[in-house]
Write a structure and sequence with these properties.
430 residues, mainly alpha, 7% strand, 55% helix, 6 strands, globular
């Protein structure tokens, strides 16, 4: 099993199992591309070319976005607070910053993830408004973007009446936006030519979603195990179907990519789990620790199922961990961070083996398709290497807890992914 970790320009790596994770970066951290200097940053649009009036106020205030001291930010906030005529231009420039980030490889969920990690709810409220306004300009959005917009939190609350506080919030947000580096693109951006839209969700994906929803909802571990096993089996068979089509009718389709949030706490264990799900389903996962996501590379038909299964297994694992902690407390033992880390690492490690076994079992039923599957796997590997040519390995930073590991391995067994059990068939997805 492998996972990846990176910093810098969307870099990445692959890692080996529960004991290690890989990382790589093509260029330094957040300041390396579009960082504290103005060259190439997200603030390249709407810079210091507008003299006089509101533009002049903003140009002077925006000098603080590239400064390293908070005193400059306070001075800039005072300038903005004193000039009500700059309000509309301040918002318009924010939309420009967001639009520039799309061209630099960022997507709405990525930007919101960074703001949620580094800033406050007030900043998120401003950012959400900018994203919604900016994306409303387009007749059509790229695949998966609407889902990201739908997932944005509805930010309640009113804008502060204190103009200085509001200006400070906006400037702190813009300072974050202009310092975000360029990422490797994982799809088209708004305004570019887009492929024809698909009508509705593929039937297979709907069946997997229904199975996993039932697995998360049930209070019976054996039922959850069987439902999850059936979902993975459907995913493996779908990959076979895609390989059959590719072998019979050569297609110009090439592997694509999506980003999936992998955030604290216990992000290394989560990255390992995602890598296990991706690898078992003919994809590759590349973890960027610095920016809290993994890039999953694979053929389009495999990407959404990987995200669905990972999300469901994480929910099931967290539920099982909470239950195990309750048992520990009942026995007089305090829950510990090392217990939770060890639990999730064991859960990810064991599930990786079981996912792979299920895929091998399904693939063995169609040995004539193995060359086609190998060809698709090679295409995914080559595309991953193109996106992330440099990697490095780092050890997983986790304290060891034997009880946590034992409980985590047992939870992975209960979320088992072998042949489906009696009473669980395709009717469960209807």
């Amino acid at each position: 099993m492998s996972t990846s970790n990176s910093s810098g320009r969307g870099g990445a790596g692959r890692a080996g199992g529960a004991g290690s994770a890989d990382s790589a970066g093509r260029a330094g951290g957040a300041g390396s591309t579009g960082g504290a200097g103005r060259a190439g940053g997200a603030g390249g649009t709407g810079g210091a070319g507008r003299a006089g009036g509101a533009g002049g106020t903003l140009d002077r205030a925006f000098e603080a976005l590239y400064a390293t001291d908070d005193g400059s930010l306070d001075t800039a906030a005072s300038l903005l607070a004193a000039d009500r005529g700059a309000d509309a231009e301040l918002t318009r420039r924010g939309e420009e910053f967001v639009r520039t980030l799309w061209a630099r490889g960022w997507q709405p969920a990525d930007v919101v993830r960074m703001a949620r990690r580094d800033l406050s709810e007030d900043h998120l409220r401003v950012l959400t408004g900018l994203i919604r306004t900016e994306t409303a300009r387009y007749e059509r959005l790229p695949h998966r973007w609407q889902g990201q917009l739908d997932a944005l939190d509805e930010q309640s609350g009113r804008r502060p009446s204190d103009r200085f506080s509001y200006a400070t919030t906006v400037l702190e947000l813009y300072r974050l936006l202009v310092r975000l580096p360029r990422l490797d693109a994982v799809g088209p951006v708004p305004g570019e030519a887009l492929p024809p839209p698909t009508a509705g969700e593929p039937r297979m994906l709907g069946r997997i979603r229904a199975l996993l929803a039932k697995a998360e909802a049930t209070g019976y571990p054996e039922e959850a195990e069987a439902l999850t096993a059936k979902a993975q089996e459907l995913m493996a068979r779908h990959s076979l179907d895609e390989a059959t089509l590719a072998a019979g009718t050569p297609s110009p389709e090439t592997p694509g990519a999506i980003r999936i949030g992998v955030e604290p706490p216990y992000e290394q264990a989560k990255a390992i789990l995602l890598d296990a799900v991706a690898t078992a389903n003919h994809c590759r996962a590349v973890w960027n620790e610095a920016y809290g996501f993994s890039t999953v590379v694979g053929f389009e038909a495999d990407l959404d199922p990987v995200e669905l299964l990972y999300t469901s297994l994480l929910v099931q694992g967290t539920t099982a961990m909470t239950r195990a902690e309750a048992e520990q407390r009942a026995g007089g033992r305090k829950r510990t961070k090392s217990f939770r880390q060890s639990f999730l690492l064991a859960y990810a490690n064991r599930l990786g083996a079981r996912l792979a076994a299920t895929s091998r079992r399904v693939e063995a039923e169609a040995p004539t398709l193995l060359p086609a599957l190998a060809s698709r796997d090679l295409a995914v590997t080559n595309r991953t290497d193109e996106l992330f040519p440099e990697t490095r390995t780092t050890r997983v930073r986790a304290a060891w807890d034997e009880e946590g590991w034992t409980h985590g391995a047992s939870a992975a067994d209960r979320a088992g992914l072998g042949p489906h059990r009696k009473g669980i068939d395709e009717r469960g997805a209807r």
